[in-house]
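Lab notebook, bench 4. We co-purified these components, and the gel suggests they stay together. Before we commit to crystallization screens, I want a quick structural picture of the whole thing.
Request: model the full complex, all chains together.
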Amino acid sequence: MNQVEETLRQEVAKLLEDGTIDVFVGHEAASLPLKTSPCFVRSPKEVDRLVWNRICTSNLATYLPQLFKRPVGLKGEWTPPKVGVVAKGCDSRSIVGLIKEKQIPRDRLFIIGVGCEGMIDRHSVGRALGVVGLADAKVDGNSVQVIGTDGREKRIDIADVLAASCRECQHREAVLSNLTVGEAPSSAPEVSHYANVAEFESKSPQERWEHWVGELSRCIRCYACRQACPNCYCEECFAEETAPKWLGVTTDLSDVFVFHLGRAFHQAGRCVDCGACVAACPQGIDLRLLNQKINKDVEELFEAQVSLSLEEAEALSSFRMEDDQSFMTEP
Amino acid sequence: MTKETNEKMSGDGWEPRIIAFLCNWCSYAGADLAGVSRIQYPPNVRVIRVPCSGRINPLFIVKALQTGADGVLVSGCHPGDCHYISGNLYARRKFALLKSLLEYVGIEPQRVHFSWVSAAEGARFAEILGKVIDSVRSVGPANKMIKKFEEVA
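Here is the predicted assembly.
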């Protein structure tokens, strides 16, 4: 057990004992190798379930709004619970976004910030192993020992299998927290931002179209990207709406395009690039290339940063008189 | 889209089909003024009147392209003239992102147009529409996002 994990468990036990929180949202070990699943700890006796390691990929902010929803059918008084949560840089930015969008109340939240050096991407580990499936894996310091289903063993440097969004991450510490656990992370490396987007933009329109046809024709419309995303909390998603019916429930390429354009557009000015959608995609589609394009435009056109503070307005719920309109026909 | 219209569209007699979302207070009145002033403009446009350009969900535009439009025009009041004070200014941000996103996935930028037309600018409306049609014509019939429905019976 590492130092952070130990301190985290102690702190959570204390918070649950003195009644500061009713439930704590963290990560626990899962049955598949290199996976953790979210867990909800409600008593100090259960804190040993909590883990902290290099595979705590999921964005826990996703699980918060549902905790603050009044139970269906409940009569009489209801007080929302007091919720604790462990947050990496990206989780905390998503939490900031959700507070601003009034999905979770700040005063019922206790955020434990943890510095993050980046999380392992399972798809990359799979690629490093070749086509072999993953039988077992053990994270050990800065490397990961993996065993393929064919019994072959391999030691992989974590730096080589980091998630793409973690490589470019500039916010390794929580931007909003009540308490910080563990040491401050090393400073973020100098990386060129949006290099992948700029490279993709330089391709011809036909090449770009063919790229997305190739990527999106693999989509099976499972909506895992949406379920994993902390920003997708709508009671009824446009993808399932029937009046108006925006898109058919098919894997027709046209419907898939409408879904992905709509999904990406609904992230405009809100996506914190946590990589949860990419990690969740069973088909390994690089959705980040779509999300990051909008992030780049938001940054360049509106000089807006996504969810770094509670005070700043979101890009699409504000405007400036002098906003760019060079894209218009005869402005 | 039916088989018949598919054939009609791909043939030599193809004419661009354009959906125009016009705001009730400025652009729709501008289009109306073009009419009462007897200013000729091409019949390729199907107008949908909306309360404000801010009312336009970007999905309207995507949906129009999916269901067979060759081009889309969105027009609202000039900045500062919005009947609802700032609807067009919020809309401008959405449209800037949408136009860029569509271009990014490979949809021809010539298909999607945004403009400001006031209620007094009938001539300008006809002129812009001419330009939009020329621009859509230059990229030919839409074939990328269009959903092909199975023929039944």
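Chain B is about 40% helix and 15% strand. Worth comparing against the SEC data before the next meeting. The first strand of chain B starts at residue 18 and ends at 23.
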